[in-house]
TrEMBL record:
Residues 27-96 are annotated as: Disordered. It comes from Geodermatophilus saharensis. SUPFAM superfamilies: FAS1 domain. One of its GO terms (molecular function) is cell adhesion molecule binding. Residues 1-19 form the signal peptide. SMART domains: FAS1 (SM00554). Keywords: Signal. It comes from the Bacteria. Residues 27-73 have a biased composition (Low complexity). This is Uncaracterized surface protein containing fasciclin (FAS1) repeats. GO terms for biological process: cell adhesion; extracellular matrix organization. Residues 94-228 form the FAS1 domain. The keyword Cytoplasm does not apply. One of its GO terms (cellular component) is extracellular matrix.
Amino acid sequence: MTKNSLTRGLLLATASTLAVTLSACSSDDAGATDSSASDADSSSSSAEEPASSESSDSMESSSPAAEPATDEPFGAACSSVPADGEGSFAGMTDDPVATAAGNNPVLSTLVQAVVQANLVDTLNTTPDITVIAPANPAFEAIPQDQLQAVLADNAQLTQILTHHVIPGRLSPDQLAGTHTTVAGDQVTIEGSGEAFTVAQTVTGAPASVICGNVQTANATVYIVDQVLAPTA
């Protein structure tokens, strides 16, 4: 072999080795780059997940809470109740129901009927009752001769008045439905929210709750604009 042939052989071998080395380095660099990119993506995803959860928690905590149901009296006629004194809403809370009604000018005719029927002590001493209380205009809607006849008949008057009393203190969300009264018959109240009616009345016109959820020491009172009629 000549010197020139040996030199060309060495050059070719060196070039071949260099090409293989460069190819391997390029492959390693690409793999490293892909791996780094994958790690970066994974890291980015991990970093984003807590942020998303944190954002969700933040949105939930900022959502408004459900409004609680009101415990206050409601109805257009509540404005007729005295603002202060024993006949006011605050004044009625510490008196039993017949006494509390006696201090409220809106219920003066009802109280006269209760006294006439000798029911004051019964109403004042019975614990936890609901009273459907006709306001003065409810009695005025009854023809006077009919009203006087009822007031003169103690048995009938007692039957009518005890029909307005339900055992247990009914909150507004418990008021609708058919309830057994102290008279032993039933009264059906329809409605929801702050709008309630009773179909069966003395005059035949439906009774509406005009001031409801009034609290006394032993009763929850719903003032209505008609006198209820006992069921047969």
